[in-house]
């Protein structure tokens, strides 16, 4: 003996419901986000889960978590590239150095990258760069 489920879509208050038997179940769909959350998005997600679970839950329930994390990751990458360019100019690490002494250029670039990432790490990790009203 198999029970047949009665699926009927009902629209009320701009929210679609499916009627299954005697129950109305919200027909919820998450937005499709194609962007990756990357390193900084994953770090911030872990931070939210551990230190701000209410904010994390609100973003999940509103379907905005992935977009929020992808935006934060893009901002962090852009900020890191900007800091690296500024430090390269300040320390004269350019193509001339790369052509004349590749090892010194690589060492300088690694040093610049590590320092730039360290400078911005706290801001990315705690999400101070991203608009908290999202």
Order of helices and strands: EEEHHHHH
Give the spatial strand order of the biggest sheet.
1-2-3
Percent of residues in β-strands = 5-15%
Q: Number of helical segments? A: 5
- β-strand number: 3
Global Rg = 24 Å
Envelope shape: elongated
- How confident overall, as mean pLDDT? 80
Uncertain residue ranges:
1-9
Helix content: 55-70%
Structural class: mainly alpha
Mind summarizing the main beta sheet? 3 strands, antiparallel
End-to-end distance, in Å? Answer: 50 Å
Overview of this protein structure:
The protein has a 3-stranded antiparallel sheet, with no helix packed on it. The longest helix has 27 residues. The N terminus is likely disordered. Helix content is 61%, strand content 12%. It has 134 residues and is mainly alpha-helical.
Furnish the topology, listing elements before pairings.
Elements: E1 7-12, E2 15-20, E3 23-26, H1 38-51, H2 53-62, H3 65-91, H4 95-100, H5 102-126
Antiparallel strand pairs: 1-2, 2-3
Helix pairs in contact: 1-2, 1-3, 3-5
């Amino acid at each position: 003996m198999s029970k047949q489920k009665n699926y009927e879509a009902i629209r009320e208050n701009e929210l679609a419901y499916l009627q299954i038997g005697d129950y109305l179940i919200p027909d919820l769909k998450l937005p499709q986000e194609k962007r990756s959350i990357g390193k900084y998005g994953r770090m911030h997600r872990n931070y939210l889960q551990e230190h701000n679970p209410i904010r994390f839950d609100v973003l999940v329930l509103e379907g905005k978590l992935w977009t929020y994390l992808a935006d934060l990751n893009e901002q962090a990458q852009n900020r890191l590239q900007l800091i690296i360019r500024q430090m390269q100019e300040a320390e004269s690490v350019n193509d001339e150095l790369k052509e004349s002494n590749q090892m010194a250029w690589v060492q300088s670039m690694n040093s610049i990258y590590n320092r730039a990432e360290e400078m911005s790490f706290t801001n990315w990790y705690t999400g101070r760069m991203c608009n908290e009203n999202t």
